[in-house]
Every structure is written in structure tokens, then in C-alpha cells.
């Protein structure tokens, strides 16, 4: 059961990290377009 929880947590953090990374990239590219 512990293994399943670890896999779930790592998958969740992977999804969150991808969302944050895409948000930062989109934000910086939007800034570049404005300048």
C-alpha cells in the first residue's frame, strides 16, 4: 500500500510541476511579446 501512495504522490507532484513550468514559460513568453 505504501508503494501505491508513493507512486500517487510522485505522479501528483509531476503533474503540478508541469503545470507550474508551463505557467512560468507562458508568463515569460507573454512578457517578451509585450516588450
3D structure, described in words:
- By secondary structure, this protein is mainly alpha-helical.
- 94% of the residues lie in helices and 0% in strands.
- The protein has one helix spanning 2-34.
- The longest helix is centred in the middle third of the chain and has 33 residues, at 2-34.
- It is rod-shaped and about 50 Å long.
- The chain starts with a helix and ends with a helix.
Order of H and E elements? H
Global structural class: mainly alpha
Helical content (DSSP H or I, runs of 4+): over 70%
Gyration radius from CA atoms, angstroms = 15 Å
Strand content: under 5%
Shape: rod-shaped
Q: Which stretches are poorly predicted, pLDDT < 50 over at least 5 residues?
A: none
Total helical segments: 1
Specify the biggest β-sheet.
none
The total of beta strands comes to 0
Mean pLDDT: 90
Summarize, please.
The protein contains 1 helix and no strands.
Tag the structure with descriptive keywords.
single chain; 35 residues; 94% helix; mainly alpha
Secondary-structure blueprint of this entry?
Elements: H1 2-34
